[in-house]
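S1.2 Input.
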Amino acid sequence: MTEQQLAGFAPTPIAARMENHGHTMLKVAMASGQDLYARTGSMVAYEGFIQYEPNPPSVRHIAEHWVTGEGTPIMKCSGDGLLYLADYGAHVVVINLNGDAISVNGSNVLAFDAHLQWGVERVRGLAKFAGQGLWNVQISGTGWVALTSRGTPVVVDCGRGEDETYVDPDALVAWSPNLKVKGKRSFKAGALIGRGSGEAYQMAFSGQGLVVVQPSEDSTDRLRVRG
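S1.3 Output.
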């Protein structure tokens, strides 16, 4: 009886390199020679023979500006089997890049194929608003990427009109790197409570491309104007 009750939660047959198991878990089909970079500590289960290398030397220099904790926040996964990843119940969004690119907030990167090209880059045009600016992870090539979102995200198509799309940077997950980005000063209602000045800003996107926004703000509030 118990097995019948739990049967609906069993893994589905493998259909792709990466796919969702429910809304909050990622299933990765691992194979020899197809290594994966994943957020450190995101492994929740695996089948088969899979090895993990935290803070791999090959990525230390690339990720030196990825300020999301002590050390490099990714691990290298290799081997054969099924790997399950999650990030504290956050929704998982799977993307299959086909020779294109995506720019991702570092705290929203869950996993990506190790053969993809990637780097940590400063978002142009924002340093004067945020002091040291915003560092994002840009991933390009042909392969699989998994992102996380605090709740079900909305994907905004910026190419539908001539108006700019404004996003609270603390709710931003990812965007098409070909979009033009600039900052706009504003007053954030939530920051008016307490001792904060309330001064913040939004990111304005224009051009042809997509922006992924989560319904829950990043608690680090990494882009508040200070001084």
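S1.4 Remarks. Confidence is low (pLDDT under 50) at residues 193-197, 221-227.
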